[in-house]
Write a structure and sequence with these properties.
single chain; mainly alpha; Non-ribosomal Peptide Synthetase Peptidyl Carrier Protein, Chain A; 4 helices; about 50% helix; globular
């Protein structure tokens, strides 16, 4: 039985891309110290100016929060914040126990 809406057996469950987007915004602010608002249409590299370290911090934060795995191949399919949020939400929904 699910004890709360957002967890099941200790795993965090992503219900929507909006939830993932909120986590991306939190990581951008708290861990990457970005001083700007993060929008779904923002390009990860061009608009947010994330380098390889910034992208890695973002990916690891999302992997830890949603208990998923992102691969190098995923980076070829993701260019915007919305792309990343959709990928993570999709991967998290498949990873649910």
């Amino acid at each position: 039985m699910v004890s709360s809406v957002n967890s099941y057996r200790g795993y965090i469950v992503a219900h929507s891309t909006e939830e993932v987007l909120a986590e991306i915004r939190r990581i951008a602010k708290d861990e990457l110290q970005l001083d700007r608002s993060v929008q779904g249409s923002d390009e990860l590299v061009q608009d947010l100016q994330l380098d390889s370290l910034g992208l890695t911090i973002l990916a690891v934060g999302l992997e830890d929060r949603f208990r998923i795995r992102l691969t190098e191949g995923d980076s070829a399919r993701v260019s915007t914040v919305a792309d990343l949020a959709s990928l993570v939400a999709s991967r998290a929904s498949r990873a649910q126990p």
